Amino acid sequence: MVPILNKKVNIEYYEKHNRDSEAKVKKKQQVDYLLEKIKDFSTPRGAKVLDAGCGVGLFGAEFRSRFKASVYGFDISKSAVVLANQNGINARLADIDSKWPYENSYFDIVLGIQIIEHVFNTDNFFIESNRVLKKGGKLIISTPNLAAWYNRIIFLLGYQPFFTEVSTADKTLGLDFTRKLTSNREALGHLRVFTLRALEDILTMYEFRVVKKIGGAISYLPLVMKPFDVFFANFPSLASDLILIARKA
Q: Can you identify the CATH homologous superfamily of domain 7-146+190-248?
């Protein structure tokens, strides 16, 4: 029986990946790459930072180390929260689709790192980010780009765009040619995938002003595609990953 996409499935997915050693290695590579992309980011020493959907706390821990910040976090996975606290994050158990367990105007920065594509209620994410941020506080978002350069090509050929999923059992449906490249067909739990324009629009709707747009490449493309991906990372609307820094109005 194919699982129905619900909170239970979502939690089980994250619990499994928290134990996956290969997934941890990939996550560490992703953390290093994203931090390199925002290395010029300025933040006051001792800033209060919230890592929404913090997972095991890898990004938050590195952010704390590099920017000398106090990092808090929450996640829906119990095992992730335990590990995040072990990694030095002040983490607690909470649902990203509900009201977040923090006071109004408490944080200087909110991190949404590769999380909004997994969120059921993206409106709640931006509403809560705005609520817990101080006036002038910053929201840092990274997420896959629906309009990545290769998605524009394969969509014209009738294929399902990468990063989108029509099944919780098999991520390659509509992308059958990828089965020759990898045997991994496990869905990633992507629910909502943004273009740059859509991400800017929803930030504006919830009273954020975009102050920086950055394109990112991904590590798992075939070798022949990687030089193109690095090139197109210079153009955020065409890049594989979107990295935006926005300020609360």
A: Vaccinia Virus protein VP39 (3.40.50.150)
